[in-house]
Structures are given as C-alpha cells and as structure tokens.
C-alpha cells in the first residue's frame, strides 16, 4: 500500500533536521561520528512510523541507532515521534531517508554491529524475489557493512517470506539461531520491542516469526 502524502511533509521533516542524516559523505567516513558518543552501532532498515527505533534507543543507551526508511512520507511520523520523545533517551538516535540498495555507498565496511529487518515488504510475486530484503543479494551487502560476528535480527508475520528467508540464510552460509514461528509465546520474546505493525497484528492473533542470523 502506498503511503498517503503527508501535508507539509517537507516542512515537517525540516523541523526535525537535527535527527536526520543528510550528509552521507560524513556517514561514510565515520557513522559513529554523527553521534556525541562513539559506541556500538545498530541499524534498522524500514523503520516505518518509528516505534521500534524510538523504543530501542530509549531502552538501550549503550548503543547508537540509525533508522532508515525509503519513503519520506512515512519517516515524517517517525521523526516527529522521535523529536517528541528525545528527552526520554540519550542522544543516540538518527534517521536516514534511503534505499537499502545503497548501504555500501553510505556505510564503511564492517561498521555496523547489528541490523534489524522488521516486517519488510514480502514482495509476493516470484519475479520480485530479488527485491526482498532477505534475498542473497542484500545479504551480501549486509555482510560488507556488518562487523565480523555481526547480527541480523529478523521479524515478520508473513510465513512465505520467513520460509524464503531461512532458505536464503542457509544458501549464504549464515548461522541461524533462535528461530521461532510464535515469537510472543517463546523465550525469545524477552526484551522484544514491538513495531506498530507487530502490535496491531499480534493483537489480532497473528503469530510473529523471528530469527537471529550471525555473520561469522
């Protein structure tokens, strides 16, 4: 579903400029340099309305968080939510408007400790498989930017995407642990921060699938 055009979107994004990464050259030089404190760096690809990013940044002051979203009209809400809650956390959250295809252009090699894929677009049609964020082409990009031993944490409500992803992880030679097809009723749910989408679907009784993937 296409995001609804936000009224005064550009002005609203500009009002949150302190949290928005616009200088990608500086990001490429040193992603941690955009934060007051250098500490482990986590990246969420597809942050939606920002619940997860804001929640994780507040809960974990010990790492820096970058939340990326390709749709500007979606990230408006995330930015405004983060601005409203900025006094509730350390200065450890930033946002980036862009496509995951450009990860290696924006981040230096082996600079990210943990990457999150939360409820990514399943791209249902087989001919669109390469667009799925767990396709092996994207996994190769993640391997470039993640540190050795870095982690990918994956959540989805779509069983077909989950099955596809497990096959791609195996084909890429990645170590997969904590696989669950019912996250909220498993031990892996401890410390879980929900996205807006996750909260909505879990309340309707849909099981959430999750896995932790290691880039050894």
Describe the structure in your own words.
The protein is α/β, with parallel strands linked by helices. It has one domain: Vaccinia Virus protein VP39 (Rossmann fold). It is built from eight helices and seven strands, in the order H-H-E-H-E-H-E-H-E-H-E-H-E-H-E. It has helices spanning 9-14, 24-29, 51-59, 72-84, 103-106, 136-145, 159-171, 196-203, and strands spanning 41-45, 64-69, 93-97, 112-118, 146-156, 175-180, 209-215. Strands 3-2-1-4-5-7-6 form a seven-stranded mixed β-sheet, sandwiched between helices. Strand 1, helix 3 (51-59) and strand 2 (64-69) form a beta-alpha-beta unit. The longest helix has 13 residues, at 72-84.
Which regions have little confidence, pLDDT < 50, spanning 5+ residues? Answer: none
* Quaternary organisation: single chain
CATH superfamily label: Vaccinia Virus protein VP39
Tertiary shape:
globular
Taking the alpha carbons of the first and last residues, their distance comes to 36 Å
Total strand segments: 7
Q: Would you tell me which CATH topology applies?
A: Rossmann fold
Given the structure, what is the number of helices? 8
Short description:
This protein has 216 residues and is of the alpha/beta class.
How is this fold's topology laid out?
Layout: H1 9-14, H2 24-29, E1 41-45, H3 51-59, E2 64-69, H4 72-84, E3 93-97, H5 103-106, E4 112-118, H6 136-145, E5 146-156, H7 159-171, E6 175-180, H8 196-203, E7 209-215
Parallel strand pairs: 1-2, 1-4, 2-3, 4-5
Antiparallel strand pairs: 5-7, 6-7
Which descriptors apply to this entry?
216 residues, alpha/beta, Rossmann fold, seven-stranded mixed beta sheet, 8 helices, globular
